[in-house]
Write a structure and sequence with these properties.
By secondary structure, this protein is α+β, with helices and mostly antiparallel strands. Helix content is 47%, strand content 16%. The chain has three domains: 215 residues, Porin chaperone SurA, peptide-binding domain (Triger factor/SurA peptide-binding fold, Orthogonal Bundle); 114 residues, Roll (Chitinase A, domain 3); 98 residues, Chitinase A, domain 3 (Roll). The protein contains 18 helices and 13 strands. The strands form four sheets. A four-stranded antiparallel sheet has the order 9-4-11-10. A four-stranded antiparallel sheet has the order 5-8-7-6, with helices on both faces. The chain has a three-stranded antiparallel sheet with strand order 2-1-13. The longest helix is centred in the C-terminal third of the chain and has 28 residues.
Length: 461
């Protein structure tokens, strides 16, 4: 169990982080309501200018904290701390409105797609998710959209307030030295794992088959078929297909160049010829211009890949593997120059720990596909090319590299600098957030329900 002072957020930041999706993924946190048969407490408990906090907001997060405590004592003022941080969220929204801080439709749609994809993965299928909530996926996304937009605005405000805060090595050491030695956390086995990913190349035959299919769809639309219905039936963009291919409004340079260039040639209602981008082949229907933004819908088809298409990627990876093992090139250099995984290629191919940004990953939290691959590997070894599916669903091949394997140990600066630095940075950012809260709390109208009158929601520790 990690010591609270070492990694936990300040009470003021607690529900901000919960709301932005950094903790467990419960129904309430994902923001799509509750399954059928479950009832929420409701009613307004706080007003912050024109923003409100519901009783259910507090109760949902409290229930999550109780579950996370696993039977350990709950602080008696936990609900007050939760309410306090929710007030901070609402204050940031109020100030964002005043300061014209906004987020784009693209950002909102991207986060909606991410949450839905994750939740579908957890539930097992899109159909099971829809049955659980007795709603189609589009309705679930519509319900979630306002909350996601608010959360992204809060996140942007938080970045504005504390995004430039950093810590020096001296501050990291000072932070570590303040932690009582008997309270230092004990870490389980951690590993550093690198990967080089090369996507399977699509054959000309499969490209031509995809183009032919899309041309047939285009012909049906020109003959009178509904673009929206054809998008729902055929489009392979899961985020927009359920909405008839609708992507929302975007400004210039927010979409890939090929898509934007084709869109800008169209008038409202017109449909493009087939457009190729890094995502596949598109048919685009222009909807309208609004100021410097424009909206479109599209049908996306992705050419299929097969074992033959992946063979060239495997051959290239095998050549790289031999070069690395013979010390003619480093793994980091090979990853930087060749890997298509942008999240790791700039970090020498090493996978990042999402909790602290470092490269050491808890062995028991690894993706099972990686865990069972490296379980019997020795440090320094590299796997032969292995089949892989990228985050955006493309077939690829990859090699995995076990850089280090750190046995269980008590936290120390040498082995755990990245974790300690991340904790020190969080503390410093919390202080910046607290200072902003103190500075701006008098600029809003606040009304608290009698049941929470004892909570000093405008105070900080």
């Amino acid at each position: 169990m990690l010591h609270k002072r070492f990694f936990a957020c300040s009470p003021l930041l607690l529900t901000l982080l919960l709301a932005l999706g950094f903790a467990s993924t419960s129904h309430a946190q994902l923001g799509i309501g509750r399954p059928r048969g479950q009832q929420l407490l409701d009613g307004i408990v706080v007003k912050v200018d024109n923003q409100i906090v519901l009783r259910s907001d507090v109760e949902n997060i409290y229930a999550q904290e109780v579950a996370r405590a696993e039977g350990k004592p709950i602080p008696p003022d936990l609900k007050c701390k939760i309410l306090q941080s929710l007030v901070l969220n609402k204050l940031m929204l109020a100030k964002a409105e005043t300061d014209s801080v906004t987020v784009t439709d693209q950002q909102v749609n991207g986060e909606l797609d991410r949450r839905m994809a994750y939740f579908i993965q957890q539930i097992g299928s899109e159909k099971k998710l829809e049955e659980m909530y007795n709603k189609p996926l589009k309705a679930l996304k519509d319900d979630l959209r306002p909350q996601v937009q608010e959360q992204l605005v809060q996140q942007k405000m938080q970045e504005t307030i504390s995004g430039k805060v950093n810590v020096t090595p001296r501050e990291v050491k000072a932070y570590f030295d303040r932690v009582p030695k008997d309270s230092l956390p004990y870490f389980s086995t951690e590993v550093e794992v690198g990967q080089i990913v090369i996507p399977a190349q699509v054959s000309d035959k499969n490209k031509q088959a995809t183009i032919a299919k899309l041309n047939d769809i285009r012909a049906q639309i020109l003959a009178g078929a509904s673009f929206e219905e054809m998008a729902k039936k055929y489009s392979e963009d899961p985020g927009s297909a359920v909405e008839g291919g609708y992507l929302g409004f975007f400004k210039r340079r927010e979409l890939v160049p090929e898509y934007e260039a084709a869109s800008m040639k169209l008038e409202p209602g017109q449909m493009s010829p087939i457009v190729e981008s890094q995502f596949g082949f598109h048919l685009i229907q222009f909807i309208e211009r609004k100021g410097d933004s424009y909206s479109t819908r599209h049908i996306l088809l992705k050419p299929a890949t097969g074992s033959a298409d992946a063979s060239e990627a495997a051959k290239k990876l095998e050549r790289l593997r031999r070069q690395i093992l013979s010390d003619s090139i480093s793994f980091a250099k090979a990853a930087k120059d060749n890997s298509s995984d942008k999240n790791s290629s700039g970090n020498g191919g090493l996978l990042a720990n999402r909790q602290d940004g470092g490269s050491k990953l808890p062995l028991d939290k690894l993706d099972p596909a990686i865990f069972f691959t490296i379980d019997t590997m020795k440090v320094g070894h590299i796997t032969p090319p292995l089949p892989y599916r990228t985050d955006d669903g493309k077939d690829a091949m990859r090699i995995l590299y076990l850089k280090s394997n750190t046995p269980p140990h008590q936290a120390n600066l040498q082995d755990d600098y990245q974790k300690i630095a991340a904790a020190a940075l969080t503390e410093k950012k919390n202080k910046a957030l607290d200072a902003w809260f103190v500075k701006n709390r008098g600029s809003v109208y606040l009304e608290v329900a009698p049941e929470y009158a004892q909570c000093k929601v405008l105070d900080v520790e």
